[in-house]
Amino acid sequence: MVRANNLRSRKYTVLSVAYPLLPVSSGAAGGAEQILFLLERELIAAGHRSLVVAASGSQIGGVLLETPAAPCVITDAIRADAQHVHLDSIERVLDQNSVDLIHFHGLDFWSYQPRGTTMRLATLHLPIAWYPQAIFDQKSIQLNCVSESQARSAESYKSLPVVENGIDTAQYGSKRERHNHLAWIGRICPEKGPHVALRVAQRLDMPLQIAGPVHPFAYHQGYFREEITPLLDEKRQYIGPIELQKKLDLLGSARCLLVPSSVAETSSLVAMEALASGTPVVAFRCGALPEIVEQGRTGFIVDSEEQMAEAVQRIDDISPDVCRAAARERFDVHRMVDEYLELYSRILECSRS
To answer: Which distant-in-sequence residues (6+ apart) come within 8 Å of 243 by Cβ?
Structure first.
């Protein structure tokens, strides 16, 4: 605790940079946007100065320099233009302000690196294999991972520090009346597996609520039309993007959360949020999910749709109170913030040596 207090006593000016086209808010579907929102909020609460470059519509506690949000459909040309606008905005902030550290959260952060020598950090929110190899050879920017499994997958490039993601566990603690429906929450895209959740719910003849945005990428929208819509019916419903309060209600009342991801998840905020709500999680054995879900204690890790359906039928073996306690102990945002402040301190000390 003394170490954490010392870290919080050092005051920095931090420029946080989001992905160019998606707003940052507490209800954002993307993990990168949620983490930026929480970290920025807690930095301000600890007395640090916060500057943010993010898409219009972002909910920021510090000084926000807005860039255009996504249009109805995002093309390669629109993305490239947004990256140029982002870079111009970052350099304008640096010209007008004394900044200690730039913290990039965008999934394409290498596309808008500014001139100058301001120290910089990029949090890797995606699987390591999804990044160009060249970023691991750069010496001008520190990278960090968000889980041990992600860091292990990066070892062929270099050893990277880990700051595991966190959530505001306090806001998920209220006990709600439990219903019989299943829940799936996230971005509607193939790798997140909402189609798998729908098939599992059909197999069990159980209600399922699917929540989350269909982002304006052509392949996301095509996937929703072709793979999700045909599986919806009276019991299996898509309820669209949801704000924080609706997420609290959905997670708090669900029998369990399904996380049938087909990619190596670097983290899973929604799994943490479910556990903080007292709701067990049934997840595929992908990436960091086995680090979050404790087998037989806070949920089940499975390897197939069939095993997922079987695990749902055993979900009453999991104690909601144990789930809540585990989330408070392991996933609280204050732990994440203290670890980021320690990493900031190390980066800035290296710059002075």
So the answer is: 27
